[in-house]
Structures are given as structure tokens and as C-alpha cells.
Amino acid sequence: xxxxxxxxxxxxxxxxxxxxxxxxxxxxxxxxxxxxxxxxxxxxxxxxxxxxxxxxxxxxxxxxxxxxxxxxxxxxxxxxxxxxxxxxxxxxxxxxxxxxxxxxxxxxxxxxxxxxxxxxxxxxxxxxxxxxxxxxxxxxxxxxxxxxxxxxxxxxxxxxxxxxxxxxxxxxxxxxxxxxxxxxxxxxxxxxxxxxxxxxxxxxxxxxxxxxxxxxxxxxxxxxxxxxxxxxxxxxxxxxxxxxxxxxxxxxxxxxxxxxxxxxxxxxxxxxxxxxxxxxxxxxxxxxxxxxxxxxxxxxxxxxxxxxxxxxxxxxxxxxxxxxxxxxxxxxxxxxxxxxxxxxxxxxxxxxxxxxxxxxxxxxxxxxxxxxxxxxxxxxxxxxxxxxxxxxxxxxxxxxxxxxxxxxxxxxxxxxxxxxxxxxxxxxxxxxxxxxxxxxxxxxxxxxxxxxxxxxxxxxxxxxxxxxxxxxxxxxxxxxxxxxxxxxxxxxxxxxxxxxxxxxxxxxxxxxxxxxxxxxxxxxxxxxxxxxxxxxxxxxxxxxxxxxxxxx
Length: 552
Prior knowledge:
Strand content: under 5%
Number of strands: 9
Strand order of the largest sheet: 3-4-5
Order of helices and strands: EEHEEEHHHHHHEHHEHHHHHHHHHEE
Shape: elongated
Radius of gyration: 48 Å
Number of helices: 18
Distance between the termini: 78 Å
């Protein structure tokens, strides 16, 4: 896990909520804890985080703190079960020590003595004269092969860096980064040489090391040469006289424009020059009253906009909007004062009049292009309409064929079911056994080749009809008014498909022709209850039917 950048703003760890300069979304301790333990639900705080024995790292720290307060450092289970709150802390300061002697094993051990710093050795007076002035490529440095820890210049630089770090309050990681950078820069250093900024910058940037702090240490020893390009010096010249707080933000903004950022691409030097030339006088004027950009108000930005016009207004407000947006992104500004301030339009150039022939030629070419596109669109529409008509006719034919096949399949299934024989392949149904009934035709299913629905005669029972026809007659007998085919299908529990309704309609027509029911009107079927033998012979509801009230 790489150490955090020196200019990274502080944030809160997503796991233990510790506040400080973090290397990522979580602190180093939580990163290591998550790599060693699985994610689960904490038994104390009920959070879904990496847990150790069903408790998260923050709960373990709180239990350890309460145990040390009570003088117990062996068993933490009772304290884990009694957790009701958690103590927040700063990053890299979670090991809270009690005043007085240390407890446990650490109290029985002698304190570890810090290593004595190496004595600074003065460089040798002997000097090797440089014959050729060539550029050094520090990127090819290999620590195991090229490092020279006994170099007197490196020893003196490391001692100076240690003193500077103690004075500036550098952290362990920062001091280690500077030490690595000094080893790279001074391992092969000889008297009379200088370390150049442009040669050292690529090597340190590849390794994520700080160039600014390394250059500061080398500059204290007189071994550093600042040969940065003219852009950096131009920035210093442009921002001369600006308040230090405003200048720091402006320099970071300019470097981000030149080099790019995590979510922004680098801009051209001309763009940066135009932006700084536009905002330079404004920043210099604000430096007379403010020490930081967060003190600038919206009214002051609007006053700047009111004093400008044309291209100058457009470029100045664009540069100010970019500067304040960068500060707001990096966390040095809480509110962007340039929001919803119109930057105006760019000044329009001089419009040259066109000759009559040029206007006519331009209009004619556009008219020809439009006519060609309209003609192509109409032809395509005609083709699509013809294809749709053909597909519609084909669809209608297939639907009619499917309806006829379904009616045929149902008719054949009824014939085989009534005959007591199993249907053939694809019939889609099982044979219906003959029901016992009282009458001359009881127990005898109609054989193939005879009438499936015999004509009605007085005294003939419903048991002589197939089950499906018998259900229709019984349903119409119970109905209080004539019913249509679709209502009868719904009452019998048939699906509302056109094929099913048409098949049922053919059965109704057949029953009407045989005299079992009557057609009182076009499509209206009924059964006269006064006719003997047409009443319900059994008290049970027909198979697959619903009560008569559902079909009315």
C-alpha cells in the first residue's frame, strides 16, 4: 500500500472512521485487517465489515481500551459482550497508552533504544574533474546493484534530512521516502557534480517519491540545480506579489492543467498561458484584501464580471471558474462562488457578404440534397408497407389454418373418447370412460361411424350424450336466459381463445340440429325446462365447469 501524497487532504476511514491523511479509502490498519479476515456482520455494532471472531476491528480496539482501563490485558471476551459505544480516534494513533508504566509483557521489557544517528563525515577534498557534461538517467537506478551507502555525500545528505525532518515534523513514511530518493540521487555522486531537477523528476515520479522535499535537502547542501523549464519560472513571474495562500492554490491549479490530474487531461501550454494572463490581475487585486481564495465572495466575482465585456469577460470567467472548481475538488474551498454566473459570449468576427451566385449555388446544392433524401425515404416507406401487407396476409392464413387444426383435433379427441379408445399421437387428451346411467344406451359409447349426438326423443336420457355435450345441456338448463357461445365457454372453464369458442359453437349448432337445445336468436342458445328428459339427472357440477351464476 503506497503512502499518501503530501498534498492529499485528510479524510475518514470507511471502516473504523479514523480521521487523518489516509493512503486510500481506509487506513493502513484496516487494510491489513481486511486482507486477513472475511467480511461478516459484527456482533456488537451490527455492521457488515471484516470481522475477527464475529467482531470488527473497531470493537476489538474499544474492548482492549476498556480492558486496559480496568488493568486486564488477558481476556477481552467479557468486554466485547458489553460493548455499547466506540471511541473514535485519529489515524495512526489508535494505540492509546495509559499514563505510567506499561502493562503486560511490554511493561516487563526494557524500552527499545533508538539507533544512534550516523556521524556526518566531511567529503574528501579530492575531486574528479568531469570531462563530459552528459545527462544522467536516474530511472535506470537499481538499489541492489547501484546503491552506495558509504558515499560521504550521501551520508551527509541523510544526516541533513534527519535534522530537517525532526524540525518539520515529518512522519516515518515521509522520512523514508526522502531517504530512498537521496539514495537514488547521491549513490554515484562525486565532488563537483550537481543534481538537476529535470533529471531527477522522472525517476522519483515513477517510484512515487517526493521531489520537493528531496530538492529541499539537496539545496541545503548546495548540490541541487533547478533547471525547470521556462513554464515554472513563468509561473513564478506571473504570480509575483500574490498572497501566499492564493498563490499556492493557483500554482497547484496551473500544474494540474499542465500535467493533468486523476480525472482530467492535461491542457496545452497556450491554454494555461491564456488562463493565467486573464486571472493574474484579478488575483493580484484580491491579494490586497484577502489571504486565501475561500475568503472571496460571490459579489466580488460578479464585480469582476461587470467590469469586463466581450472576449475578455469570456476568458476571465472561464479561467476563474476552472480555478475555483479545482479548489473545490481538492478540498481547499467549501463553496464555489462562480456558480451560475454567466460568462457571456465570445465576440463575433466581421461577417463578409456573399455574392448572389454563391448564395444561389449554396441553396441549390442544399435543395438537391434534400430532394434526394426525401425520394429515398419515400421509396423505403413503400417497400416497408409492401412487406408489412405480405406478412399480414401470411399471418392471417397461418392463423386460420391453426384454428381449423385445433377444431379437428378436438373433434377427433371427442370421438375417440366417446368410443372408449385411446386417442392417436398428438390428440392431446386421455380417453374418457363411459359413465353408468339408467337407460337403453347405458354403458354403450357411440362407436366410430355412427352419430355422436343422437336426435332428441322423449324419454331419452342425457347419459346418451358425450360428457362435453352433456355439460352444455345441463348448463343451459340451469340458465335463466339464453346465453352466447363465449359466455358458455367461460362458464365451462374453457380458455377465451377463438379456436375454443368456435369449437364450442359447432357443438351448440349440432345440439340445436338434434333438438336438444334451441337457438332463440342469432347466437343465443337456451334449453326449455318444460321438455321432459332435459333436466339435470345428477346433482354434481359438470366437469371443468363453474357455477351457472358465473356465466351470467
